[in-house]
Design a protein that fits this description.
The chain is mainly α. The protein has one domain. Helix content is 74%, strand content 5%. Helix 1 runs antiparallel to helix 6. The longest helix is centred in the first third of the chain and has 26 residues. The two termini are 21 Å apart.
Length: 189
């Protein structure tokens, strides 16, 4: 497949951008539905967009740090991110650290808010991994590998949904397992 979903004159909409916009909207709706009776619903909605932005920034920063040899002589390239050079671990790490700091500073329940925010994250990842398949950029990959990642995120989503209201630390556990499985599968596949 081609990386471009739609061209409108000089503007190209990639599959990744399409998936990102659609899944951001769906994720926000999911958050509103699952948190509708929670007294922190509005706070969670505010954090949702902030965490999304911080996730992308963190993903880029960590990618650049891990690839300093590439950017040492071309510093301007480091601030020109695209979805081909992001680091999932970096995005998750920065988003979680900032969420922890902000919730503690405001006296809000970090684990509760994290648990709710992880639901749209896992949902978006389960579907979002297909953007790379549609773009055809996973040349060393195949649809079976993408399916494995998608199923992994879906299983973690279902597990998290079943447990997150009963066990407040489940978010940290599922997130840790997600990173282990994601990077473990990357090594194995």
């Amino acid at each position: 497949m081609k990386p471009i979903f739609l061209s409108l004159g000089p503007v190209n909409i990639t599959w990744f951008l399409l998936f990102t916009v659609v899944l951001t909207i769906i994720g926000y709706i999911i958050l509103k539905v699952i948190a509708k009776n929670n007294k922190y619903r509005k706070v969670m909605e505010d954090y949702y967009l902030l965490e999304l932005i911080l996730g992308f920034v963190g993903a880029r920063i960590v990618y650049v740090i891990f690839h300093l040899d590439i950017y040492a002589e071309r510093l301007l390239d480091a601030i020109r991110p695209n979805h081909y050079n992001l680091n999932l671990f970096g995005g998750v790490l920065i988003a979680v650290i900032v969420l922890f700091i902000l919730t503690k500073r405001k006296g809000e329940p970090f684990l509760l808010i994290l648990n709710y925010l992880l639901v749209p994250f896992y949902f978006s990842m389960a579907i979002g991994v297909w953007a790379f398949e549609f773009e055809g950029i996973l040349s060393n990959s195949n649809p079976i590998e993408t399916l494995v990642y998608s199923i992994m995120f879906f299983i973690i989503l279902v597990s998290h949904l079943l447990l997150f209201e009963k066990h407040k630390k489940v978010g940290l556990i599922t997130l840790s397992l997600t990173m282990i499985f994601y990077y473990g599968l990357e090594i194995l596949l």
